[in-house]
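Below sits the subject:

***
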Amino acid sequence: MTTAERNELSMIKEITGNDYTIKPMTALRVGTETHTVGLFRNNEKNPILTGKDVGQLRNRLGTILDSGIARKGEIMVHQLNQHIGKTLFRVMYWPELHTKTPAVWASLYKEDKPVATMLDVQTLAIVIKAIKRVWC
């Protein structure tokens, strides 16, 4: 991780109070790869990012931090969950595989069910704001 990526993750942690840990997980097929390690938020059972090994996971973490989507996704979902009063929503990030500058897909989940998948930060922000308006 670069210094900028570490600073970005520290800023997200400071605002949300979330703790992020890398740990082994049940094998997950992603395209042609089998992912066996995940980045988990707090003590949640589902990862927000996966990789076939720790090295790839750290690389993918750098990608989502550099893109800015992690900042919006984590902070806005944290605020939405605070507004609702319980942790219902989460974002899972999917950097494209096998590209030098991968786009990052974000899937918004309510508990274990996907609500929407989008490719850019602006759409993610709009969807989260719409849910907040409808929910409350």
Q: What stands out?
A: The helical segments are 3-16, 54-67, 69-84, 121-135.
